[in-house]
Write a structure and sequence with these properties.
115 residues; mainly alpha; globular; 5 helices
């Protein structure tokens, strides 16, 4: 479980602006409200699946957050099967951490009235 202190420390970290997949560097951008809504809905479906609900097509793809981050930087991005073969667990974890950092920064800014 993540503590408030850990989230605050995460919010102070520099943004993750690129990842390497295979032999290619991909820029990462800031998640839009729509992307965050999609990620939240996806997470809710995964939680429901743990209780026996069926998954929707594509919900078993662990690169969902990563795809949104890459798409935010390059609108021509498409995660292909070939590219998925080269995504490491470390990149998937880093993408999730970057999403959490962005969400925390926005929440703190909204709380301070600077959003």
């Amino acid at each position: 479980m993540t503590t408030i202190e850990e989230l605050f420390a995460l919010s102070k970290e520099p943004p993750l602006r690129s990842v390497v997949i295979g032999d290619k560097v991909f820029a990462l951008g800031d998640l839009s409200p729509g992307a965050l809504a999609d990620i939240t809905a996806w997470g809710n479906r995964l939680v429901a699946h743990a209780s026996g609900a069926p998954l929707e097509p594509g919900d078993d793809d662990p690169t969902r957050i990563l795809q949104h981050l890459i798409f935010a930087a390059d609108n021509d991005f498409e995660m292909t099967k070939e590219l998925r073969k080269h995504v490491t667990p470390e990149v998937i974890v880093a993408a999730g951490r970057e999403m959490m950092r962005q969400v925390t920064v926005r929440a703190l800014a909204a709380h301070d009235g600077s959003a």
